[in-house]
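A quick aside before the break. I want you to see a complete sequence-to-structure record at least once, exactly as it would be stored in a machine-readable document. Don't worry about memorizing anything.
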Amino acid sequence: MLKVENLKVSFNVGDKVIHAVKGVSFEVNKGEIVCLVGESGSGKSVSCYSILKLLPKNATVSGKISFNEIDNLLTIPENQIRKIRGNRISMVFQEPSAVLNPLLTVGEQIVETIIAHQNIPKEEAKNLAIKTMEEVNIPQPQKRFYQYPHELSGGLKQRVAIAIAIVNKPEILLADEPTTALDVTVSAKILQLFTKLKEKGMGILLITHDLGVVAQVADRVYLMYKGEILEHSNVFEFFENPKTNYAKKLLKSRPIYI
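That is the input. The structure line, written in tokens, reads:
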């Protein structure tokens, strides 16, 4: 469904050029969760943002990102990528407060996403929004529909952000550290939701540095370090037979709970 080939990203900062991603290749198939793993600053998020052309203007991007019938997302015009964002490919960001509009109710924001991509009446869009809120385990969705982001907990805000991302039934979901700021219980529920979405045929690219998350939901793993892919394997091979010294050290650094 999604294939990234030889992706390179650099940033012009003053008189310097910072090479953040150095020829990365990976792919996501229908009905699987692929984890892009690595420490902070390894280039995971930059690679992800490149897919939907969400990088700042000082970024230079090259390579090829094919998506089903589209040969290269990097070369299509902005008006076409807008039709894909939030519709065929959606993204869940790490910090929902930075994404949600504080001046609109959460229901208005979900409905806005629906109407932007579907030609349906507003009342039908409202019903679809409430149904999607139920799917992401938001309690009392009819009540929450009329609340503002500041009235919700961090976990609820993240679930609203996920509802916005999946309401148009995307083929690919990009999730950038979606559980980092959440408690263990809420995090587990969101990972369960991702597994259900995968079972319905959605392809999910999950960016994380949490090896516990990887072990719980991943089908395949790409390990990044300093802007490069060091190794790629299925999740069982990654934990049982890591190929590189960096992967072995990373696995040994996991906390052990007694």
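Two observations worth writing down. The beta strands are 2-13, 16-28, 33-37, 59-67, 89-92, 172-176, 203-208, 220-225, 228-234. The chain has a mean pLDDT of 93. We'll return to this after the break.
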